[in-house]
Amino acid sequence: xxxxxxxxxxxxQPGGSLRLSCVxxxxxxxxxxxxxxxxxxxxxxxxxxxxxxxxxxxxxxxLKGRFTISRDNAKNTVSLQMNDLNPEDTAAYYCNAxxxxxxxxxxxxxxxxxxxxxxx
Length: 120
Prior knowledge:
- The protein is mainly β.
- It is built from no helices and 11 strands.
- Strands 2, 4, 5, 6, 9, 10 and 11 form a 7-stranded mixed beta sheet that branches. It has a 4-stranded antiparallel beta sheet with strand order 1-3-8-7, with no helix packed on it.
- The mean pLDDT is about 95.
């Protein structure tokens, strides 16, 4: 059974920090691009950051410097360190794993999400 289980969300004051974690199981984690997306009420889901199987990081330009993604293939985890949070960061954050290749097929897995609320 494929599972992506997020944790670490919650309520935090503006300027605070949170660290989100995602534990994966049921697939070959090391071969996938893994990352984090977020979706605020009334808005489309957007990429926060991801790390490819080759170790390359992609992230939203506006979040660079505040958010840092990391993956640990030995533990099948991907984490997101979020600093200097502001109310605009309030959203449901989703862990994602995906893989597309000519010889390996197509895969796209999602976690259930964890809520991050930034408010005084």
